[in-house]
Hints:
By secondary structure, the protein is of the alpha/beta class. It has one domain (27-262): 3-Layer(bba) Sandwich (FAD/NAD(P)-binding domain), CATH 3.50.50.60. The protein is 39% helix and 27% strand. It is built from nine helices and 13 strands. The chain has helices at 6-23, 37-48, 83-88, 107-120, 149-153, 177-186, 205-214, 227-234, 244-262; strands at 27-33, 53-57, 75-79, 94-96, 99-106, 124-127, 129-137, 140-148, 161-170, 201-203, 217-220, 223-225, 237-238. A hairpin with a 2-residue loop joins strand 4 and strand 5. Residues 33-39, 56-59, 64-66, 130-131, 171-173, 177, 227-229, 238-243, 246 line the site of ligand 48F.
Amino acid sequence: MLNNHLENVVSAAIVSSFSKKLLNNLDIDVAVVGAGPSGLVAAKTLADSGFKVAIFERDLAPGGGVWGGGMLFNEVIVQKEAIEILNEFNVASKELEEAPGYYSVDSVEMASGLIYGATHAGAKIFNAMSVEDVVFKNDAIGGLVINWAPVERQRMHVDPLVVMSKCVLDGTGHPCEVLTLAARKAHIKLDTPTGEIIGERPMQAEQGEISTVENTREYFPGLYACGMSANNVMGGYRMGPIFGGMLRSGKKVAGLIAEALKK
Ligand code: 48F
């Protein structure tokens, strides 16, 4: 039994709360890798529908590529088709006089708003955790192998822990890390024209925004991709600091996963 020093009380409370949170998320419906805009929208939408969702994010600060705006000018652009999604998160936007149909959004407000929206809906975010492998069971992807990001960075020889999930969502952005490692380590053929990762193409904003949403789907039983990860796997174009496609991709994949899990 610990004594009543405040220092002990605080430490014990943190260890106990975190342990309960992790224990409660070792077997979940949806494991999202990466807390970028597409993963955060997917997580909130699924949590709102009652699914048990956790996001595993390597960085200390969730939010992915939103914070930095365009070249560290902390504004991003969102098209009118996605403003409804921002409104769900209570993130403000301002239509551009010079380009009607396009809205500027403060990137700090957007990143923090998406994070708050996802967690407030009930999705748990485990930050500073890296996904280093997938669980491959019954010819499907059935979970994630996780470790602390500093352990990964320092290349410490520390065995990981495992989270089981009904499905996995790769929201890792440009590198599409989960699809890449699943294809390499499980020797699976992805649902692409070659069975492999096609690879992201250079910038072509209009096309990239369309293909991000089109390419958002399941690529192997139990393994979905959203955002730039979906673009990379199918050879879509990049689009820079315009984010409507990312938000819509998160919404779309949440719908696909919800439909599959309800079956
Ligand atoms: O890249 P990111 O923001 O994902 P996204 O939702 O959005 C892309 C845009 O930000 C931007 C763009 C828009 O025009 O092109 O790039 O596709 O966020 C991906 C997150 O995944 C984390 C990474 O730290 C980042 O926060 N991540 C990547 N690999 C891992 C990971 C991993 N193996 N384990 C845990 N987190």
